[in-house]
Amino acid sequence: MAPYNAIALVEYIQILHKGKLDKSLFAVFEEELKSCSAQEVNIAIENLIIRYKDVEEIEKTVARFIRASTSGLERWQKLEYPADSLFSILDRENRAIELLLSNLKKSYLSVLPDFRDNRQETRTQFKAELEKIQSIRNHYLKLQYGLFSALEAEGAPTRCIQLMWHLEDSIWPGLKDCLEMLSGKDWDFNRFNKAYGQMYYLLGSLVFREDRILYPVAFQYLSEDIQRRLLLEVESFGIIHEEDWRIKR
Description:
With 249 residues, this protein is mainly α. The chain has helices at 3-17, 23-33, 38-49, 59-75, 86-116, 120-130, 137-153, 159-169, 171-183, 189-221, 224-234, 242-247.
């Protein structure tokens, strides 16, 4: 980790939060943004969150910051976690979530014409597909009551964790709203399309944040003994398998 990179990213995200969004800002920090590591991005986000009590206040800024950092984060090769380790399981579950989202995207594109024509039968069919998102809830319980709790116990910076927890908890009210709209009599396609798009984007962004920021940082922070203990704890929640979604399409 280059200390100068972290300092520059802290400055960038602070300026970004003040509302300066033009291309000239990115150009000034382009070198650091295109070479940043997970640890440096985490430091910058932590430094922003520490200044605000309400994580919702900085939620959009963090999202913009991560988008600006994407090329830098993707420049690093993803870590190869030990087989059947905690992080290997979490990583495989993210691949399952990606497959679920891919299946949902295909299904949604196929039903769009019927949705615009307000066909109840099609809405009922898509509702059954959308309900599958409920089956990935245990992935987030593993993070919240396993990984996040362990990081807090070890004295890790926890403000980024607070933001992740907030975003994960917002999945389920969004899903509930979408399912109720699909079942309701007063169908409003535009309202549903917006709500569904927000939930879908959130799930995809969480996969990216976990893959590229959370797991690399936590893997280096937690000892092997703690990871082994956590593995036993999270296995009680059950494992999400990618093969499940290849069968249930």
